[in-house]
Amino acid sequence: xxxxxxxxxxxxxxxxxxxxLPRGRSSLPGDVVRKEQRERLTRGVIAxxxxxxxxxxxxxxxxxxxxxxxxxxxxxxxxxxxxxxxxTAGAIQPVATSLYEAARRHRVAREADGxxxxxxxxxxxxxxxxxxxxxxxxxxxxxxxxxxxAAGPEALRLDGENLRQFAGLLRVWHERAVVDHPGxxxxxxxxxxxxxxxxxxxxxxxxxxxxxxxxxxxxDTVLDVLLRLLAAPR
Length: 234
Hints:
Blueprint: H1 30-52, H2 59-66, H3 70-76, H4 80-88, H5 92-112, H6 119-136, H7 138-147, H8 153-180, H9 189-208, H10 219-229
């Protein structure tokens, strides 16, 4: 996912029915047209895959939703896998931005009230932000947690990279927490990765059950799982 509009939108609106691009000679610069075409195609592939599943999605499904021609598709992407990987490649970045911003808001609020840092509540804030963001973007969430791991070796590698980046964020949280809590048990990168994998499994079960909207209800469970696996006080 390569969206740069901020953490509130993972990759824009994926609903079909976008108006077509102007036909014939356009007054828009060529690079602007190409950017718009590429964005339409990445939005279109997310919408199509979320609806039909990766295995049943075709190039025709994508161009139909993007309202561009098949010729335009192949000007941007070699094939469907390339388009899908491009649409999901930067998925972690806006999510990470959201988590950092949630941590910053938590820290600023406590400092303003003169209260000491509460690392467990900071982690809860991050968990809540993540689950709410997933719930707001059901199509993209479905593509990431169900379809991406099943889209071939390169997609599986990308899925692993996303999980490891989440694990890195968790490791940073723990390193900051142990400064104030030196008695907490040390953790390894593998433990952080396992903790994120457990959370991913919980999220996947909800998405498979078509209950993406219910993900925020997992807040307490996800927090408890993370703290247990990191041997941190609850």
